[in-house]
Amino acid sequence: MAGSKVQKIDIPLFMPRSYMSTEVNKTGSWRFLRPRYDEKTAPCSAACPAGEDIARIEMLTTQGLFKEAWETILKENPFPAVCGRVCFHPCEGVCNRGEFDTAVAIHVMERFLAETALRYDLKPLLEQSPGKKEKVAIVGAGPSGLSAACFLNRLGYACDVFEAASEPGGILRWGIPEYRLPLPALRSEIARIESAGVRIITNKRLPADFAVGAKGNYDAVFIGCGHGRTTMLRIPGEDSSGVEDGLEFLNRIRRGAKPPVDGLSAVIGGGNTAVDVARSILRLGGKAVILYRRRRQDMPAFQEEVEMALEEGVELKELLAPARIVKDRKGLLITMRPMKVAGEDESGRGRVEPAGGKTQEFRVRRVFKATGAEAVEEWLNPPGRQRNVLLLENCVLVNRAKGPAVVFGGDLTNETKSVAHAVASGKAAAIALDTFFREGFKAVRSRLKSCAVGNGKALSMEIYMGGERRLRNPHVVRFGEINTDYFHFAPRITQPRLMKEERLNTFKEIDLKISANLAIREAERCFNCGVCNRCDNCYLFCPDLSVIREQDLVGRHVNYDYCKGCGLCVVECPRNAMTLEEEKR
Amino acid sequence: MELNALDQEFMHSGHVGCPGCGAAIAMRFFLKALGDKTIMVLPACCWSVIAGPYPQSTLKIPLIHSAFETGGAVASGVRAALDMKGDRETTVVTWAGDGGTFDIGFQALSGAVERNEDFIYVCYDNEAYMNTGIQRSSSTPYGAWTTTTPGTDWKKLRKKNIVEALVAHRIPYAATANIAFPEDLVRKAQKAKSIKGSRFIHVYASCPTGWRIPSEMSIKIARMAVQTNIFPLYEVEDGLRYTINYKPKEYLVREYFRLQGRFRHLTDKDLDQIQEMVNEDWELLLRKAGEHA
């Protein structure tokens, strides 16, 4: 249409624009599975007789929070400097990392933390219950007695510890050689217990009727005198001169003596005492052969100790049981009967029986007995099953009609005789007595059960005292529950040691210190099974922005208004600190 | 890189992505890396739905929904408009699915990068047309079930190598990224932001619904795609310089395939064949990166 005017129409530009967010859609209603934070129990902490919160200790170490890590040990064990050295670390045997590459060197970390605390003279800040009126007497300042005193003190009880020797420590002071446990380490731990308010009275041997006579002065007595006398071999010639008690020998060395050990000595037994005796003989210039009636792998002594002993030159003869000892002009002639393996006992240790055949004779200067020990006096042994007696894990509580309650603990009651079990014994006694005083005899067993770590045998003082650890799920995390995609293979730390030649003429500590750098690197190998270390995978991978980090950056929570329950946070949690469960609405 | 430093969120909760959606995770990481001076162009894809129905938006940054085939063109236009306004600060990002990149939007993308338009093109790849009902795309991998490759007619053609197609345009920056490797992804997004010209990032984003996998496995499977060499992490500068960012543990591809319902029908023989294809691709990549196998 030429010439006609084009009419201009003003068409408004219309672009629809959103003006609200999607937050009106409460997508949480889609959810049929519900994630939640659910910290669980690490296998190491359940296997530790003292129930140490190892996963958390390693986490704090990784973060460089050495004091906090050390305090976390102290909550459950007053002897980190000791246990870091002499514990048989059952924790490492069950470490989930062992199925990945090699177990975390937990005992090395423990020792490192204790050393660090000692070096910087750190003072722990631990929770302390208000004072109570009851008083407790403790017989024996060994690891179990001191632990009982330490934990009772923390629960608010005044404690007096009576010790027959001139210095507290028991086996730690008088039985374990200095090259494994140097004196300053032990003394610093005992000093800490004393400074918390525990009174230790040394050079005080108590009579058998002490517990009866203690009425009025004390409301309870803990007896933890340990096994100080070596058991008899029950063979002819055992009382000849030159046949010595292994424990007594170690004791003499720790008192500062240098007993003569010239020539070859035979050590009978396969426990740590036997190995300690043999290695001490070497250090005093003698030679030693260990005669053991089972095999090397059956020895209760720690494998590492055995290995080092052999390296240093101790000889080991297996499957030989002593038959008789004859003393003549040239010294001692010990006759050994060959044994053979006949099956296994419940713990997988070889069972042996006489093999018959030719006996073997060893010409030696001395024989040291180290075949186990027993209580020095009969009254120290706990009573058997009775109505007023509670046979507990690692201790025995006797509710006597007259006089104070009595708890037997330490080696007197423990099936496994170790420092960690002694600590466990002291802790069990402290919890049992506190419950006994506050809630009565009948409440004791169930109360102890309620503070078990992962429903196992170990008890936790932190749980008993109502700490955060009580919120942990008792489920023990398995290797299959760890998301190993987040971990890389890394070699376990090699404990630096004195060289063999450096060890032989001195009682200097063999294991050397490690640097903080190495300690952190080793701690980083820990999966922290079941314990949140705030890695933030849950937060990062949430497609719905429903993992909320709290202001303090410590807490995390799920915003269930929007969480669709996809489960990514739970699966991507490297350490199984979350749980996905059915939504019950 | 400290991911904790990227605390700010540029997304709202309440979006309507499926539980465990890899594309939602990809978007979250990208926006954390790019920041709020970003305009996003969104051709039809899952994210057209995820972003919310009108008048809602789940993003805290401006977002333009556009037609399926126009990702490259609209971004060019937005860039031009910003330039006219004198705004050189804002980053323009096209956020497209594999359908909008490999198939329908390929022409516009190819045209835009040939002109070296200054924008980042992100393809989040869930390997089929997911929101319309799991139809196969040219990104669907060999062996996969989709609703258009059902039963015995599973896809018997290779997945298109989109990064190589883009590299052939000699663009300044092309890279692959994966939601299971957030540090790598964030680094690449920030690197792309710092470069001028056409940048292309191919992001692996798992899809629990379309792949027939449990929602909680979407990161695990994404990680395995890298660990098995099925989806290598690498970047190419100026179409020439290859860098492989992650040397995988050489896991077998069958581990990856076994976890997914969409591959359930594959026999051991098929999986062996796929393994060979993956090995071949990996060796080709090594050669390009000058790291002869």
CATH topology of the largest domain in chain A, what is it called?
FAD/NAD(P)-binding domain
Overall form of chain B: globular
Task: Please count the helical segments of chain A.
Answer: 20
Largest sheet of chain A: 7 strands, mixed
- Spell out the helices and strands of chain B N to C: HEHEEHEHHEHEHEHHEEHH
The first-level CATH class of the largest domain in chain A is given as Alpha Beta
Instruction: Domain count of chain A, please report it.
Output: 4
Low confidence ranges of chain A: none
List keywords for this structure.
heterodimer; A: 585 residues; alpha/beta; Alpha-Beta Plaits; Fumarate Reductase Iron-sulfur Protein, Chain B, domain 2; FAD/NAD(P)-binding domain; 7-stranded mixed β-sheet; 20 helices; 23 strands; elongated; B: 293 residues; Rossmann fold; 9 strands; 37% helix
